[in-house]
Amino acid sequence: MIWEGSEDEMSRIVILSGSPSVQSGTDKVLRYAGGILQEDGMEVCFHSVRDFAAETLVSANFKDVQIGELIADIEAADGVIVGSPVYKASYTGVLKAVLDLLPESILKNKVVLPVMSGGSSGHVLAIDFALKPLLGVLKGEVLQGVYVVDAQLDKAAVIPIRDVVLDERLRGQLTELVVAVGRHGVGQIS
């Protein structure tokens, strides 16, 4: 995968979107977050569950080239952001299928920011009770995370977040990610 950002970057962040939808609010938020990180001097690499063939996921093809690229990018990263819309009070099944093909401790010594979006605030605990435990099983150092209600988004806008408080919360979590990556030391987090 191609890392986006300037050549003299110090830290690398992989963003993985768990949304199967082409018109995804989750993707918009994750790409917006990636842009903020790039402005702060981070290299960003974006992956989506849509990048992987259904046959790869259904047959659990651990040797798939694209899965190998995702693994290599995560191994080269200092931090990871994993985002998913809420489906049935949890992350998407396709995100789980992708994560199931990664090595068990792929996130060891990596700072991980979970991001979830949903139609209402009624599923805000999906981060704590579904996504964070999954990321923890993969040995990630999981941050608090950000939950986005769809009504807080404008998918057509360059800046998709319409809610000032939510934007501040996202920026605060991105700052925490950058600080935590810095504590690990660039190049030493892997």
TrEMBL record:
<dbReference type="InterPro" id="IPR029039">
    <property type="entry name" value="Flavoprotein-like_sf"/>
</dbReference>
<dbReference type="InterPro" id="IPR051814">
    <property type="entry name" value="NAD(P)H-dep_FMN_reductase"/>
</dbReference>
<dbReference type="Pfam" id="PF03358">
    <property type="entry name" value="FMN_red"/>
</dbReference>
<feature type="domain" description="NADPH-dependent FMN reductase-like">
    <location>
        <begin position="12"/>
        <end position="149"/>
    </location>
</feature>
<dbReference type="GO" id="GO:0046306">
    <property type="term" value="P:alkanesulfonate catabolic process"/>
</dbReference>
<protein>
    <submittedName>
        <fullName>SsuE family FMN reductase</fullName>
    </submittedName>
</protein>
<dbReference type="GO" id="GO:0008752">
    <property type="term" value="F:FMN reductase [NAD(P)H] activity"/>
</dbReference>
<dbReference type="InterPro" id="IPR005025">
    <property type="entry name" value="FMN_Rdtase-like_dom"/>
</dbReference>
<keyword id="KW-0560">Oxidoreductase</keyword>
<keyword id="KW-0285">Flavoprotein</keyword>
<keyword id="KW-0288">FMN</keyword>
<dbReference type="InterPro" id="IPR020048">
    <property type="entry name" value="NADPH-dep_FMN_reduc_SsuE"/>
</dbReference>
